Amino acid sequence: MLPEKAESMLEELLRYVKLLIHHHIILGYGGNISFRVLPKGDLILITRHGTLLELLEPKDFIPVRLSEKQCKEASIEYPTHRLIYLKTNMNVIFHVHSTAAIVLSLRHKEGDVIKPLDEEGKILINEIPIVEAPAGTIELAEKIVQWVIKGRNVVLARGHGIFVAEEDIKGAYIKTCAVERSLRVLVLTKILDALEGVTS
Hints:
Blueprint: H1 4-22, E1 31-36, E2 43-47, E3 61-65, H2 78-87, E4 92-96, H3 99-105, E5 113-114, H4 119-124, E6 128-131, H5 138-149, E7 154-157, E8 161-166, H6 169-199
Parallel strand pairs: 6-7
Antiparallel strand pairs: 1-2, 1-4, 2-3, 4-8, 5-6, 7-8
Helix pairs in contact: 1-6, 2-5, 3-6
């Protein structure tokens, strides 16, 4: 039986997930989501391994204690979610395999930093560091959490997608939308620049 607070957070989370689907930021199985039941607490709810995010329901989340180093039922990215919660005060994590993020990440290498061109991106995100490691590994978790500790709570895993860590669900949603919008702007700008070069 989940605490009443967890149930209300799930309802809020599902509303924002529907909006991410509407904006084509979540596609199919693309990603995983978790949140702390209580701020600074050790109980989280995280999506199950193999969850179809486009049809996300409350039953797709499982409770896990952060003292558990492994959880076979949870998303393969549990190590990253767990380490962020253990090392920071963040309460919500969105990981999405959004198209613009993956496309741009493949045009960069680990250690690069992408800077948004749009004003909202400059204000909300400022810069997006790129890391590279196999999905679901401690190596990936450690690389991402190093940036989150430094205050960069939007990190792009090369060829894999965005990780957004925030203090609340709404904040995570806003940052996820902002980063994907900024990356779409960058992709479209590069396309237009290339077309102008061809036609000039």
